[in-house]
Amino acid sequence: MSDAMAPEELARLDAAHVLHPHATVGHPARPLVIARGRGARVWDAEGKEYIDGTGGLWLNAVGHGREELARAAAEQMRQLEYYSSFGDLANEPSIRLAARLAQLAPAHMNTVYFTNGGSEGNETAIKLVRLAQHHAGKPERTTILSRRDAYHGSSGTSMAASGLDRLKQGFGPAAPGFIHLSAPRARTRSETDALVEEVERIIEETGAEHIAAFIGEPVQGVGGVVTPPEGYWEGVQAVLRRHGVLFIVDEVITAYGRTGYWFASQRYGLDADVIVTAKALTSGYVPMGAVLISDRLRHMLDGAEFRHGFTFNGHPVGAAVALENLRIMEQEHLVQRAEEMGAWLLAELRQLEAAGHVVEVRGVGMMLAIELSCDPTPAVQAAREAGVLVRGYPPCIIICPPLVLEQAQAERLVQVLREQLLALR
To answer: Which tens digit of pLDDT belongs to each residue from 365-404?
Structure first.
């Protein structure tokens, strides 16, 4: 851009006027201003190039700078930039997108409620299951079972559902009605059985007649890419069905190819009542999310009024971009690529487990974590200086690159992380 500001002026204005998420108020760090991107690479305002090992924030599938998505947005804006979707109002792109998602999703997920992102999606899902129980003549079934180390959003109800206490400090009392169980960390069958038995025990102690639903990520993301042990989901689902507890699957991170399947629910055989998605639906080009509702839950809700909505529900530009994003993913076989490249990355990164500070490397598809026995911040910062962007969620380094990551870029990412982790003292 010919009128682009100088980096120093951008830093000054940022410090003066911007409050960043997860930043310390009044003590701004010098910003890394990302100016442009192409594929799995981005450049800052000073022209330095980086390999994007974060996908922006767990979300980019098709890569940065896709002209197809820019054209899809512009063409839709020329046709219809926005109109309400409340009541009986609708637009063609959102109708087409809902039908497309029903084709891609597990067979029983045929109804879609659009949102602007993951926090709104989980708020919506919790309202839906509570309303369904109420409409079925069980208004006392309001409690939601969640898990420690879970992240379901930063709005009121979704924050209460989350199991990360550090994200709740100072915000006053959390919304009531949530019980947090153990995170799905197990190395043996007996430990896995104990996790399933905990679900059974908590339901019996609380009373199934008080519990609306269980919410869980197929793979816990912010909690450290915690992959479920074999038999865990099979056992949990059996308990939920036996007690009539509904099942919300939070696929905000895992949906749309990240785990090597269109939905992680398909990878793990999850029989959800609600699947919450966002992030990679548009690869981040436009904020948009989609809550997928099962035929079973829709039947429970039949005749109920759902008095819930957001101004930008079913945004036509977001829907047009999402449709093109999904087309690119299918045409370029990016779901399969996530499985293959993810397996390569996992195998290469697992060699780092020989390094003194590395506790474990784990992941599924292109969603990986390196757990350390020390603060990951120095390694994350050093990797940035070496031209690789990854995220630190203590005690883990998270890798979640665009699905278009090239082999040479993957090799460079692994090389830089190896160098920085071996240099830790």
So the answer is: 999 999 999 999 999 999 999 999 999 999 999 999 999 9
| 261-316 residue pLDDT tens | 999 999 999 999 999 999 999 999 999 999 999 999 999 999 999 999 999 999 99
Its domain, for residue 405, covers 32-62+333-422
**Cβ–Cβ < 8 Å for 371, 379:** no
Look at residues 151, 38, 74, 111 and name the one whose alpha carbon lies nearest to residue 393: 151
Using omega within 30 degrees of 0 as the cis cutoff, is the peptide bond preceding 228 cis? no
CA distance 346 to 358: 14
- 136 in the same domain as 205: yes
Q: Are residues 295 and 257 in the same domain?
A: yes
Number of domains in the chain: 2
Q: Are residues 79 and 178 in the same domain?
A: yes
